[in-house]
Amino acid sequence: LADASVDLIFSNLCVQWCPDLRQTFAEWGRVLRPGALALFSSFGLDSLQQLRQSWAAVDAHPHLIDFLHIQQIGDAALKAGLSNPVLDRDLLQRRTPDALTLMRELKQLGAGNAASERARGLTGKRALAKMQAAYEQLREPGGLPVTWEIVYGQAHGSAPSTRSREPRGTSVEQLRATLPSRKG
After folding, report:
1. CATH number for the domain harbouring residue 17
2. The whole model's pTM is what?
3. Three-class SS string for 66-104?
4. Which residues of 87-120 are buried (b: 16+ CB within 10 A; e: fewer)?
5. Per the domain annotation, does 176 fall within a domain?
6. Cα-based angle 177, 111, 136 (whole degrees, multiple of 5)
7. Largest CB tally within 10 Å, which of 4, 44, 56, 115?
8. Total domains present in the chain
9. Per-residue pLDDT tens for 3-39?
10. Domain containing residue 161
11. Euclidean distance between CA atoms 90 and 76, whole angstroms
C-alpha cells in the first residue's frame, strides 16, 4: 500500500500474533492518512492465566504465547508513531469442562505456542497429567475457569514527520524465526 493511503484499519484479535508489534504499528502509521483511524483488539496478559498457572506447576518452559500487558501495547503504538492511542480492557471468564477441551479449542483456532524459547518435541503423558491435576484444583461449579483479557485500542495516523522510521516489510530471516522447526 502507498504511504498515507488508508482511511481506516480494523484488526480484530490479530495483533497478538505479530512477532514485533511496534513494527506492525509502524506499518499502520505509514499507510494511514494523517488523522485516519486504527481500531484493534488483542488478547492481553491476563488471558489464559489459569492454564498458564497449571503449566507452571509442571516446568519452567513457556507452554503458551506471552500476551502483552495493556501498557506494552500502548507503548508500542506510541513508539511506532501512532497518535493519541486510547486503550481499554475487559476481563471475560468462561468455563470449560476440562483442560484438554480448552487445549483442543485453542489448537482449532490455530493458537499454538509460538514462543521461541518453548520446549521442543512432544509433551509427555506425565507432564500433561500433572498440568491437568493442577488445573483441576481450580474447578468451580460449572467447570474450570478460563479468563480472557480483551484489550481494545484505537489510534490515529500522524503527520509524516512524526512517523516511525521502522524498516518496511519483513525479511525472510524474520519470518523463518517465527516458524516452528521441521527438524526431526
Report:
1. 3.40.50.150
2. 0.80
3. CCCCHHHHHHHHHHCCCEEEEEEEEEEEEEECCHHHHHH
4. bebeeeeeebeebeebbeebeeeebebbeeeeee
5. no
6. 125
7. 44
8. 1
9. 999 999 999 999 998 989 999 999 999 999 999 999 9
10. 6-170
11. 20
